[in-house]
């Protein structure tokens, strides 16, 4: 492994629990891959520009990939294409993913560029690679304590599959609004779960 792309979608930036755990995983991976190059895309600290009418028109008309309208999209897709693994740290907002991550998706999920569409449906054009998603939430949406729906996981899974990415793992940091003890418990549980994943085993320690 030479390149790792880290997407941080939290508006809390570097202090978010998900991003801190992600950086912990990066540090662990570097024990196995000393020359690992990390590309960090902090969507909260460096928001992407909104999509406009001209971009929408370019998607539906013959437009060269190197057209200025696609500059941001091409840059983000290039980061993804060069990565050997993708790590996404995202909060759950209102049962689904935050607007910042949705905007990133709208830039990288692009017809004729990262997926094709035909009679058989949409087919991803990217090479598969390991993808791990850390999902942070104040409440519970998984397991016996779940009290709210989870639209994030199925949607993000479908998006990544449409890009051609199928080697997916999700880890959940739940109950983060219930105090320091709850935060420590969910982080310890996440580390234990991550230690069983091929991408991180046996690197993660509690």
Describe the protein's architecture and organization:
The protein is built from six helices and seven strands. It has one domain (3-194): 3-Layer(aba) Sandwich (Rossmann fold). With 206 residues, the chain is of the alpha/beta class. The mean pLDDT is 94. 35% of the residues lie in helices and 19% in strands. It has a five-stranded parallel beta sheet, sandwiched between helices. The longest helix has 16 residues, at 17-32. The chain starts with a strand and ends in a 12-residue tail after the last helix.
Question: Gist?
Answer:
The protein has about 210 residues and is α/β, with parallel strands linked by helices. About 35% of the residues lie in helices and about 20% in strands. The model has no long low-confidence stretch (mean pLDDT about 95).
Number of helices: 6
Classify the fold: give the CATH topology. Answer: Rossmann fold
CATH architecture name: 3-Layer(aba) Sandwich
The fourth-level CATH homologous superfamily is Flavodoxin domain
Largest sheet: 5 strands, parallel
Mean pLDDT: 94
**Order of strands across the widest beta sheet?**
2-1-3-6-7
Highest-level CATH class: Alpha Beta
> How many discrete domains?
1
Distance between the first and last residues' Cα: 24 Å
Q: How much helicity do the residues have? A: 25-40%
Helix and strand content put the structural class at alpha/beta
Rg result: 17 Å
Q: Report the principal-axis shape.
A: globular
In total, the number of strands is 7
Query: Regions with pLDDT < 50 over 5+ consecutive residues?
Result: none
Which percent band covers the strand fraction? 15-25%
**What assembly state would you assign to the polypeptide chains in this entry?**
single chain
- Which sequence of SSEs, written as H and E, runs from N to C? EHEHHEHEEEHEH
């Amino acid at each position: 492994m030479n390149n790792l792309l880290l997407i941080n979608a939290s508006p809390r930036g570097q202090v978010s629990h998900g991003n801190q755990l992600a950086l912990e995983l990066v540090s662990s991976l570097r024990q196995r891959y000393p020359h690992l190059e990390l590309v960090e895309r902090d969507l909260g600290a460096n928001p992407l520009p909104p999509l406009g009418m001209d971009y929408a028109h370019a998607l539906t008309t013959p437009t060269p990939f190197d057209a200025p309208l696609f500059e941001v999209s091409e840059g983000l897709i290039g980061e993804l294409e060069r990565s050997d693994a993708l790590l996404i740290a995202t909060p759950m907002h209102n049962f689904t993913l935050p607007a910042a991550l949705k905007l990133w998706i709208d830039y990288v999920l692009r017809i004729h560029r990262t997926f094709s569409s035909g009679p058989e449906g949409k087919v991803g054009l990217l090479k598969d690679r390991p993808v791990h998603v850390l999902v942070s939430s104040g409440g519970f949406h998984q397991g016996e304590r779940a009290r709210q729906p989870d639209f994030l996981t199925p949607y993000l899974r479908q998006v990544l599959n449409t890009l051609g990415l199928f080697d997916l793992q999700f880890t959940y940091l739940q109950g983060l609004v219930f105090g320091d003890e709850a935060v420590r418990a969910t982080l310890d549980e996440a580390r234990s779960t991550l230690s069983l994943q091929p991408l991180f085993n046996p690197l993660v320690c509690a």
